[in-house]
Amino acid sequence: MTRVIWIIMSFLLILNQIAFSQKKQTTSKFDSPSDKNTESPKSPIPIETMFGNDKVNYLSILNFRLGKHDRFGYFGVTTLSTPYDRDNGSNEFIFSNAITYKLRSNIYITSGLQYHFLKGIVPYSGLQFLSANPKWLLVMSTNIGLWPKTGFQSVGILEYKPLLSKKLRLYTRFQGVYNFNLENGFHERSLIYLRTGLTFKRTSLGLGYNLDFYGTSNTRQQNIGLFIHRLF
To answer: Which residues 6+ apart lie within 8 Å of 154 measured at CB?
Structure first.
């Protein structure tokens, strides 16, 4: 069973890399900062790095349809957190892959596999709401982790990006995650990440604040610094 899961995970990793390469080949049409181009059905690939006072945080998201009018799609998220000093924590790497099925406008069923730095391979399934335009982005999802222990996760992302001038936008983001162990009945992990800055063309720069909560005691870790966010 473990070997089968690893084979599926390897396939999803290869799919992620192929899709990323295909996406890069289509990004030339986004070079113009106009709203018309931004509203293209080709979803860009956001990649972000934050250099904080305690650690470096990395985030990338890949979302695309499997066919122009297909209800099936792929949604992948990679996160990495690396402290400068090992005494302040350990490296945290999470790689999530899901096949999505469109139920109706903006609502999707998700099912896939996640690699978690502590849990290993975690099969999961859930629901996702996704709505995007040049000014707003809203992503909400809930899923159930099925193995090694049953867990619940809720994720919310809200971006507000109004135009300040013809070439400049305000960039703000709220990101929240809550994880709960259903078998043992306790809080595992949750976080609140805030971003505020300015966007020129496809690059955003600004200030970032991360607040992480761990375990039943809700141990807190803060990270404040500068972030760079780029759409590819």
So the answer is: 141, 142, 177, 178
Instruction: Extract the runs of DSSP E, i.e. beta strands, from 2-86.
Output: 46-52, 55-65, 72-83
Peptide bond into 41 cis (omega under 30): no
Identify which of 88, 78, 95 has the alpha carbon closest to the alpha carbon of residue 220. 88
* Token pair of 43 as six digits: 């979803």
Distance, CA of 144 to CA of 167 (rounded, Å): 42
pLDDT in tens, 24-70: 444 433 333 444 443 335 678 999 999 999 999 999 999 988 877 78
Its pTM stands at: 0.81
Q: Name 4's Cβ contacts closer than 8 Å, sequence gap at least 6.
A: none
Residues making up the chain, counted from first to last? 232
Residue 28 to residue 175: CA distance in whole angstroms:
29
Q: How far is CA 63 from CA 76, 114, 139, in A?
A: 6, 16, 12
Give the CA-trace dihedral at 78, 38, 129, 210, to 10 degrees: 50
- CA distance linking residue 97 with residue 113, whole number of Å: 6
CA atoms of 67 and 64, how far apart (whole Å): 9
Looking at residue 50, its amino acid is M
Q: Give kind and range of the element (H or E) at residue 155.
A: strand 151-160
Q: What is the pLDDT of residue 31?
A: 39
